[in-house]
Design a protein that fits this description.
alpha/beta, Rossmann fold, 22% strand, 153 residues, six-stranded mixed sheet, 6 strands
Length: 153
Amino acid sequence: MIKKEKILYSYLSNIIEDETPNTIFVNTTRDISKLVKRIEKLNIQSLQIGPDIEQISNENFDLFIILDDIQTSEPYIGMIKNLISHKIAIFTNFKNDDLINETMLKLGFETELLDKSNGLKCFSYNLKTYNNKRTWNNPKGWANPENFDKFRW
């Protein structure tokens, strides 16, 4: 196993341990049997691996992982985000880096891993932590708290 693979699999197994998902989809064409061996002791009900998502468009996954061998686009990522999973990790290489950074920022992704020496970059999205509830957006923060749920303008 090369160094890049070790770092990738270690990082992915840490994500999976931290998030404790029941269902995972890994979007790749690679042989990731070494990763599967690493995570087989975890309590995962379903792990699916495949190069495309046409067959799974009616399923939901707790965690969706896209490796850097898969070409992605804004509509592809948007469909995953809106229909398939609320927790997403996307690995990219450093080709078209500025365009990818801009696209990921537009879609609400954050940079989680940046390792130029090994060519690894990971963006993540988690709906639960993306837009936290603001403390000021409640009746106490309003001039007329009695009207908080009565009027929308």
